[in-house]
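Quick start: what a row looks like.
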Amino acid sequence: MIGLSVVHWFMGDDGWTFAEAPGTVPDPLHHARFLHELYTRADPHATGRATVPVLWDRERQTIVSNESADIIRMFNSAFDAVGAAPGDYYPEPLRAEIDGYNARIYDTLNDGVYRAGFAGTQAAYEAAVVPLFETLDWLDAHLARRRYLCGTVLTEADWRLFTTLLRFDAVYHGHFKCNLRRIADYAHLPGYLRDLYQHEGVRDTVDFAHIKNHYYRSHAAINPGRIVPLGPLQDLDAPHGRGALA
């Protein structure tokens, strides 16, 4: 199996693209121009939106999953017998706790930024933003005494939170109007974010040029000029100071 990394400059009228641009990764298997071509390759009768991520089975020539929550679980254990890196981010004793964090963080934060950003009314926007920042406030207090969400054990709940925190100040704060506070304004979330970013191999997966170009250039209804901001300036390699937390 192979997970196709859809790295793009921005999402155009035809959806997610493999189009050539600085730093992009083309489709090495079928040389598709757009992600929807893989959906119809897997199912010629496929309709609806072609979404990411995609885990592709090159033996059966089909999509295994396009749901990130499922894929992260698959990568946690499904490939252990074929040389996957060691580690268990969903250990049995912590599963109930992990699931609890995932549920709240997904509903109010991971998905909440999108419900705020694409809200069509003031009431819908506020209904998303208020619980979003309640969750960030709760997380900041929780992480004051714990290095990770489950204490000293790094789990999938941390990595699911990481992707939203990483994009927050660069994208969601301005583009999606989630601007009560920045992550940088909190006492403990900035160090926690830097701690995760500095784990081996993680920074190599982060490209802020791609992140900002996708969001600011893909949503014409929100940013009709498709102007991409130069900031914010962030130093995610600064010391995180969280090593002594239990």
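That is the whole record. The helical segments are 36-42, 68-77, 95-110, 112-117, 122-142, 156-175, 189-197, 208-218. Confidence is low (pLDDT under 50) at residues 1-9.
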